[in-house]
């Protein structure tokens, strides 16, 4: 079976996938699920984050190479900023991947900035950044990116992550700059790419996902109620939809 590489979004790390990893393992029991951290997050939280998204891609790919993950083509999955890295990975190193999935991502050359981040999201992010208590801050982030009323255990887990591997405001700023400067380009992806969106996303407009889907006529799935962090809001649904998509793609190729 083909393995997976998973990439998180702005200011988040591998541990933030939570239950999604176990859901993926259930749907793909013969695959290994590899979670890599962007520079400045997770195991690399002390590393400087580049302001160039292609540089971020190359750093993450180097991690995969060092771990021997790329001995055969993999499936790439990225959420938000991670989805942009997935797209750039397909552009720079198309031989690495057999399939790719982008969840609630956007590109500067396809969507205006007010869709890529709702105007009230800027205010919310500033307000959250000013919260001194880490637990309260993580609870506010969870409320912003998720629509389901999650148990306190999720906040506690996110608190522990931030305490152990804190992501700096500087890293988040540099990630935002890298995302803002990046352009998707015009080349068609050589691999099957699935777009997954959350129309009820309160951080990024679903029109950003639709713009990518329409530009390259890609398949797109929409969750009925989840927020920006779809993998946390409804991990069983997401893992099941990925399995169904790959099953359908395999049948079409037969």
* Fraction in helix: 40-55%
Low-confidence spans: none
Counted by DSSP, the helix tally is: 11
Strand order of the largest sheet: 2-1-3-4-5-6
Count of individual domains: 1
Can you describe this structure?
The protein has 254 residues and is an alpha/beta fold. The protein has one domain: Rossmann fold, CATH 3.40.50.1820. Helix content is 48%, strand content 11%. It has eleven helices and six strands. The protein has helices at 20-27, 53-66, 81-92, 113-116, 119-129, 134-145, 152-164, 169-181, 206-216, 230-233, 235-253; strands at residues 4-7, 33-36, 74-79, 97-103, 193-197, 220-222. A six-stranded parallel beta sheet has the order 2-1-3-4-5-6, sandwiched between helices. α2 (53-66) packs across α3 (81-92). The radius of gyration is 17 Å and the shape is globular. It starts with a strand and ends with a helix. This is Alpha/beta hydrolase. Residues 5-234 form the AB hydrolase-1 domain.
List the keywords.
254 residues; Rossmann fold; 11% strand
Spell out the blueprint of helices and strands.
Layout: E1 4-7, H1 20-27, E2 33-36, H2 53-66, E3 74-79, H3 81-92, E4 97-103, H4 113-116, H5 119-129, H6 134-145, H7 152-164, H8 169-181, E5 193-197, H9 206-216, E6 220-222, H10 230-233, H11 235-253
Parallel strand pairs: 1-2, 1-3, 3-4, 4-5, 5-6
Helix pairs in contact: 1-11, 2-3, 5-6, 6-7
Organism: Methylophaga lonarensis MPL
GO molecular function, one term: hydrolase activity
Protein name: Alpha/beta hydrolase
